[in-house]
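seq as requested:
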Amino acid sequence: LELVVLTQDPKDKSRAGAFGDPWGVAKLLNLEDGPDNLDMQNKELSNGRLAMMSIFVTFLLEKVTGLDAVDQLKDAVKGLPGFS
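C-alpha cells:
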C-alpha cells in the first residue's frame, strides 16, 4: 500500500508527507486546497502528538509502577461509584 497508493511525488517538494488524497475523502468533505484543509491537517498533527505522548506516559508508568495499562486503569477507577 505504501509503495503504490501512498507514494509521494518526488517533484512535489512543497511539504513532507504530501500524499494527496488517494481515496477522494477531501472531495466528499469539501476540504480541498482551502483553509479548512490546513486546519484539518493541524488537528491531525495535534492529535497524533497527543497520542504519542499518551503511549509514552503509559510505558513510563508501566516501568515505574510495574502495572500494565489495564491494571493502571483498574486502580484509577477502583474508588469511583459504580466500579468495584
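The chain has three helices and no strands.
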